Amino acid sequence: MLLPHLLREQQRRLEVYFTRVYNPVWTNPDGASWIRMLEEDDRVGVHVALTPTWSETAQWADWVLPTGLGPERHDVMSQETHAGTWIGFRQPVLREFARKQGREVRDTREANPGEVWEEAEFWVALTWAIDPDGALGLRKWYESKARPGQPVSMDEYFGDIAKNVPGLGEAAAKLGLEPLGYLRKYGAYEVPYAGQERYEKVVEAGGVVLEDGSRHAGFATPTGKLEFYSPTLEDWGWRDDALPSYVQSHVHWRALDLARGERCLLPTFRLPTLIHTRSANSKWLNEISHTNPLWVHPKDAQELGLVNAGLVRVATAIGHFVARVWVTEGIHPGIVACSHHVGRWRMFRTVGGAQIASSIVDLTWSGSVVTIRVKESVGPFESLDPDTQRVWWKEVGVHQNLTFPVQPDPVSGMQCWHQKVTVSPPQPGDRFGDVVVDTAKSIAHYETWKALARPAPGPGGLRRPKWLNRPMRPDDSAWQV
User: Fold this and answer.
1) CA distance linking residue 262 with residue 271, whole number of Å
2) Can you name the residues that pair with 202 across neighbouring β-strands?
3) What confidence tens digit (pLDDT) does each residue in 388-401 have?
4) Which of 168, 248, 259, 274 lies in the 20 to 30 Å Cα band around 89?
């Protein structure tokens, strides 16, 4: 069986990995990178890519396990669409079709094209492979309540979720349905909304006492109030930030030398026709938006010597990328912008990302510097889909993210995506789509940012304040350093 073999091999390799990578005595003279890491068998011996699409990472995988896209798997979801609460449910289309036709399907591989496995079933199977007799205490979490000793089915798993959605059972019963049957039929359910009044709810203990002596639930903060002053920030060593104030960021205009070509790069927007890198799987969306020129204000274009549709080099703290210019008044002077979600690349002709949305590249190393250069861009090609012979575009954008260093916000730890960059005309030898990264500089830049943080433990030996809950809150012991 594949899974036990993978687990045994990976456990052995992890011992080598943690010894070499996290031992301060051993250093890699070329710096670290996920690409180099995956190329070295003595650091990552077994790499399994669990992915619904061929990703860049999957090119280095020993095994690629395809998992279902939206119409090929079960999933629950909810988004902030309005002042309300709702739950959405999707299910494998062909499996549900088979069920309505009276055909029994044991798992989604029997219904999905290409025997694609849905992720939820995979994790159940993996857990049982790791702990076949239950001795590790893992298997019980994915064991059927109706059929002890057997793995939980997807009907049971998502049925249990549906039973715990407030109000869904009653709404389903009115229609003669089970909660899961309701979600199957309608695809979504609007949960009774507690509204803003939930903060005003009268309680007998805790909460906030108002001037009239009444006690109310309040907010999920230490004081139960909306905190203008945050005792948490002061307790954790950030006294200067305990009151709202203006903080100059790393891309503040005073920190930019405009005369030297420094600008603030905005890389966190996308065109409305882009849906992350999944756009590559939609030929119609990809035809509309398939590249990402650098937005430059006419004033900046003149000062920087850039021309519309010409090449531009954008240098970050750890490397640079080469894109095309789009001169537009839709961007503020002093700021340049490059949409993400395009710029896919692959190293092989028929293995890798979608051919209508990715370039074939050469990847070369020189010490700690990696260079990715387009060898063959997109164009018409023969396939089972006649539309691939109608591809008229010749570029698929540039993968700018590789040139962004890790910049963790000192307080929250979240990535600071905005970049201080130097924008200039292309240098001799530059080509569209070039991506150059110095991984040694990347490590050094990360260490500089990490030094800005104030490490845990905080009060009481905590790694983070307990009242800042996560979507799935761990046991209290997990909060201790």
Assistant:
1) 25
2) 216
3) 999 999 999 999 99
4) 274
